Amino acid sequence: MDEKNWHLIKLFRVASTFRVTLDSMAEENRSLDIWPEIEKAEKENRRELVLQGSAVDKKIQSSGGLHARLYSLSLLNYLEISQCPSLHEIHENIRHLSHLQSLILCRNKLTAVPKSIGDLKAIKVLDLSVNQLQALPEEICALSELNTLNVSCNSITALPDGLSKCVKLASINVSKNALSRLPDDLWCSNLELLSTIIASENAIEELSSEVHNLPALKVLDLSSNKLQELPSELADCPKLKETNFKGNKLKDKRLEKMVNGCQTKSVLDYLRAGGRGKGKGKQQDGEVSEKLDCGRNISKKKGGAKQKGKKEAEDVDELNWMVVRVLHVSKAPTAVTVKVSAGVKDVRPYIVCCIVKGMNLRQGNALKRFLVAQTKLHDEICAKRTTATIATHDLGLLKVPLLYDARPRDTLKIVPLGRKEMRAAELLELLQQEADELRKQKKRQNVSGLHKYLQLLDGKDLYPCLVDAEDHVVSFPPITNSERTKIKRSTQELFLEVTSSTSLQICKDVMDALIIKMAELNKLTFDVKEDVGSDEETDVISDHPAEDPASPELTVVQVKVVDVDGNLKVVYPSKTDLMSDVSNLTVIR
């Protein structure tokens, strides 16, 4: 074969190979057609993109990951990809989204974060919660604009050193991981904006005495760890208002009782005194506060040291005491039952309910404290309402029996809180308009309030709702409750409802947390003895005002949830519910 023919054969082989490659690429492109959400974001030059839920998860599964065109949306400043269990990794090309300010990648199954995330210099909010991460790249420490970091509910064993470089960091949540320590530079004075540290449910063995270097620290949660001591320097944090060290086996048993039942100020006073009067903390005006009785301000007397110690211990025990009594449905004179229709199975299938009696909402700020606590539970254990939603009703305004149903958006009607009656479709459209207007006014892409939950119903033909005996919708989770059953100061019995699209156990866990918080708040209201307030709407408490309770004890009445044929699905609380390790809570069954 001459040289000329040899070259021709070689060129033919190259051309054939190139054609096969092009054919393969064309076939691949056909199988990876651009997702409509991405195409819309491209055409409209959108700054915000949310990819969420089962429909997106199926695309990820069939494509073997996120579509490559996603990483070309360079104008995005808000990107959320959540509730996609088929998502295991993010490509290095995420670096091209250089304008991102919020990156939400929660409730997936990510096993790693690319190092290129350190190139996203504009990032202010980074949420990697509820994944399968075991480590974070050191490049995260290069995010100088980072304000909020949430990596909770993973399997992270250590945080990277260098977080002190994130000088604008204000909030960090590393709860429910496998941390044995927090990095030393987390307590660096460079972090002058750091106000919230949530590190509960880890295996942390020590709280650094350098914690006082954080001038803006307001909230510190290290509950359910392996702490044995608390540094007295904690009392020197000038703005610290809320601490949680419950679930730690402290050497100082009196301090352990205090952290389980007292307000933060009392705990800090005790530490400021050095614990049992050792005087290790900084003193103010040459005197150490001696108010160690969890808010009653009982000062120590000068003589009888032994009797003083005994009296203070008794005060702490008394103030720690909380009782929740469970009333079984068989013993309830008028049992409440919730029937569940078959239609909710593919919408929001899980619900647990109960009735709470003895909650005093009449005095002072009791109602406000309860509503604030509910909001906090929504933000934390309910993961911004993505895992579960709480609804509270005035039992006296409910017409039983109740039906948990799924209805078309154009036929479902509700009187939303603070609004007139409207169809669900109208409400969502109105909320979306308000969200868009808020974006324009504040020149931002992410919004607060109810608007952030609108996307949870995207793609749903039916909406979940709780309906009373007169066919009035009293709850539309996860969006809103009805004005018809709104709780007020005059409410004496509450009907509690927790729904979820994730699991029944999450509903139970959230309900446990809610009832424990109600017991704590009711004890606080009982101890503080504030003036009785009035409902703004009526300026009266009720036609028959309730007497001041003799104790802060709560009674929880079981509620059965059954299917359309009357078969039991769940009853709450059961024998395995409310199994709290809170040492100052007694549950009587």
Profile the largest sheet.
12 strands, mixed
- Mean pLDDT metric: 81
Helix fraction by DSSP (H/I, runs of at least 4): 10-25%
Structural class, by secondary structure, is alpha/beta
> What is the 3D form?
globular
| Structural Rg | 28 Å
Total beta strands: 23
Within CATH, the superfamily of the largest domain carries the name Ribonuclease Inhibitor
CA distance, first residue to last residue: 96 Å
What's the CATH architecture name of the largest domain?
Alpha-Beta Horseshoe
What do we call the CATH topology of the largest domain? Leucine-rich repeat, LRR (right-handed beta-alpha superhelix)
Count of discrete domains:
2
Spans of 5+ residues with little confidence (pLDDT < 50)? 20-31, 276-306, 308-319, 537-544
CATH top level assignment of the largest domain: Alpha Beta
Strand content: 15-25%
SS element count, helices: 9
Keywords: Coiled coil, Leucine-rich repeat, Repeat
GO molecular function: phenylalanine-tRNA ligase activity; RNA binding
Organism: Sinocyclocheilus anshuiensis
Coiled coil: 421-448
Write structural notes for this entry.
- Residues 421-448 form a coiled coil.
- This is B3/B4 tRNA-binding domain-containing protein.
- One of its GO terms (molecular function) is RNA binding.
- Residues 347-523 form the B3/B4 tRNA-binding domain.
- InterPro entries: B3/B4_tRNA-bd, Leu-rich_rpt, Leu-rich_rpt_typical-subtyp, LRR_dom_sf, LRR_R13L4/SHOC2-like, Phe-tRNA-ligase_IIc_bsu, Phe-tRNA_synthase-like_B3/B4.
- With 589 residues, this protein is α/β, with parallel strands linked by helices.
- It folds into two domains: 36-273, Alpha-Beta Horseshoe (Leucine-rich repeat, LRR (right-handed beta-alpha superhelix)); 322-422 and 461-526 and 549-587, Phenylalanyl-tRNA Synthetase, Chain B, domain 3 (3-Layer(bba) Sandwich), CATH 3.50.40.10.
- Helix content is 24%, strand content 18%.
- The protein is built from nine helices and 23 strands.
- The chain has helices at 3-31, 36-43, 54-63, 253-261, 264-272, 305-320, 366-379, 424-442, 504-528, and strands at 48-52, 78-82, 102-104, 125-127, 148-150, 171-173, 196-198, 219-221, 242-244, 322-327, 337-340, 350-357, 389-394, 402-408, 413-414, 422-423, 462-467, 473-476, 480-481, 493-500, 554-563, 568-572, 585-588.
- The strands form three sheets. Strands 10, 11, 12, 13, 14, 17, 18, 19, 20, 21, 22 and 23 form a twelve-stranded mixed beta sheet that branches.
- Helix 4 packs parallel to helix 6 (305-320) and helix 7 (366-379) runs antiparallel to helix 9 (504-528).
